[in-house]
Please model this.
Amino acid sequence: MAKKILAVDDSPSIRQMVSFTLRSAGYEVVEAVDGNAGVAQAKTGQVDLVLTDQNMPGMDGLTMIRTLRGLPQYATTPILMLTTESSDAMKQQGRAVGATGWLVKPFDPQKLLEVVRKVIG
Amino acid sequence: MSIDMGQFILVFFDEAAEHLANMESLLLNINVAEPDAEDLNAIFRAAHSIKGGAATFGFADLTDVTHVLENLLDKIRKNEITLTAAMVDAFLQSGDVLQAMLAAHRGQGQPDELAMSDIKARLTQLLSSQDGATTAEPSELTIVIQPGEPFDETLLCRELDRFGVIDDFTPGDAHSPWLYRIKTTDNPEKILDSMSFMIEPNRVSITPSAECQSDFGLFLTPAEPDLSVDEGFGFFDDTPDVASPEAPAATAEEAGYGFFQPIVEAPVVAAVSLTPAAVTPISRPQNERATDKAAESSIRVSVEKVDQLLNLVGELVITQSMLAQNSLQLDPVLHEKLLSGVAQLERNTRELQESVMSIRMMPISFVFNRYPRLVRDLAGKLDKQVELRMIGENTELDKGFIEKLSDPLTHLVRNSLDHGIESPQVRLARNKPAQGTLTLKAFHQGGNIVIEVSDDGAGLSRERILNKAKERGLNVNDNMSDSEVWQLIFEAGFSTATEVTDVSGRGVGMDVVRKNIQAMGGRVEIQSMTGVGSTMSIRLPLTLAILDGMSISASGELYIIPLTFITESLQPKSAEIKSMAGRGNVINVRGEYLPLIALHEIFNLDPAINQFEAGLVIILEAEGQKIALFVDDLLGQHQVVVKNLETNYRRVNGVAGATIMGDGHVAFILDVAAIVNMAQHLASATPEKIAA
Model:
């Protein structure tokens, strides 16, 4: 049973790259274009890991993580923030709303896989 | 596993172009005195997204420029810096530079290093000139304490707490070092000094952390104290030993990630609580824009796929009309079911055709959107005050036209600004408002789309155009109608500008504009009133794939003439036809003599009708020239699916394409512009047969 990952990013190129990389490695991937869509997608079917961008129109990554953490089925699901903001304030905010970890853009596909494998095997 | 990034790079290019266009339109509409916070956010997000993508796909130059741009925008949106008009200009210029860089990466042109460093310097300068007032940014320091004697960690935490926020803490022991990361505005010496009463200073090294210390980390959230990952969790086990003091912070960087440890038993640092529940949510108004919604429910499909679909539908239309034609011969009583099926098929086919065509349709705003910038820049250059109004930007037309329209439209817009709209002084002297108005308008009219470029400027000068035409030896007289005079400006090399500016006036262009529009199966019309203004209208068919045509017969063959070129048809009388020695025939149509040419002559066919009175004459107009085409008969009006003759056979002079009629017959679609040229040529030269 392949592990299911939700990739949330408003940038089609990054989203496609992330999805393609993960699918090539045998994961099942569902995509969303912003926080609102991410929450909707997460409610549609349980995923094993959420990867989200921070800066998105509509609902940003932090708000989405907070919303997901408010759902009982996502209380402990690993959520990683993919973000170009490596600032600590950002990390602290992510940590505060319940993110599991962070990965700074730019990352290459290999790095992404390495991190995902660490988190969900 | 290696991933080929090529396919995503193309997506990134499109995406970046969209972001740039979006950024430009937001910047052009921004109120510098009171910028809308949501707009500033959107502009920042555009720069931010381009930077993220550029960095991911390895375009360092794009990353460089967007990085500075993003920094400045970030400070503006956080109200740390006040937006100025100079900044808006710089941002617009950045957009241009980024666009050129994107084009260079796409393989169109060379990267302009100078422009890049120039804009970077300009942005940096804006950033620093405004930055003086802001407080010093806290920097992050990495404190490494060599393995050895334990010390009171809580006490040290409290001590460090005075200097700033502790981000990271990794406890050490006799074999591994303690590691602290602290964000502070104080200098390392001061911190070292305060630690020295607890730990020997030679065990401590304090170095600035790299700007981006590590690019991955995990928080041990209270919700999940051990993240129970079967294997591989416990990142520091996998990393090289952190013992070497020389590379305190580098380890995490090399491995690419490091774990975020909770601050064990330390008093909670700063205002950040570690329990999600205790955090007051940052409530921000979520201004949902329509575009975000649209993005959710749209997909990108390559144009080739759509064209293939359109082609298949075209085939289906042909097959359907063949069935319809054949079913006419069936007994309606005997074959009632079959006939109602055929009728149903016709409805379905038509609807299918319409929806497939609508896929290729794009709003004309894709073309219009570039003009606010062009008008702003050009008006500034020419010292004119111009207001640009755009009407009907959501009018849709075929994607193929969108790309081809931009050059001709740009030309018309430039012309209006340069020759049409007067300088404020002249306007005031003429009792007009100092600010001129340039209007771009698009609307559907019948089966056409009409795009108008109008200005309330000086209008065209009949006198100047006629003088110029006489100078150039064109065949003109003072009795010509206004519209005939206006058509003269489409002559190659025709320019009435008294002085050549770098905007227009070199006399290239209007003829090219007309050529381009005609190549799209359209026409350009001019209306002008001296002192009041001019309107240039471009009239285009809705799509290139299907055209409205008149079917005619000549020598037993069937031909299609695109409806847009036909002005009228008439039954000729022999009295109206005159033969000019060596120059073919002319026909008198209400006092106007037009060259008369027979279609069978053009294609070297054996004439089926030898008497002009027995056939019909169709008056065609292309490129401002009228001719009379003699044909055997008019058969009817059809919508035909255009098939390219060149790809299926080869180019034939006088034939624009082919179509398949309902009965399965192939009919040629006439290239009216070419036929008009032939006729003109024939009328002015020796009577040579023009071979097909």
Remarks:
- The first strand of chain A starts at residue 4 and ends at 8.
- Chain A touches chain B through 60 residues (CB under 8 Å).
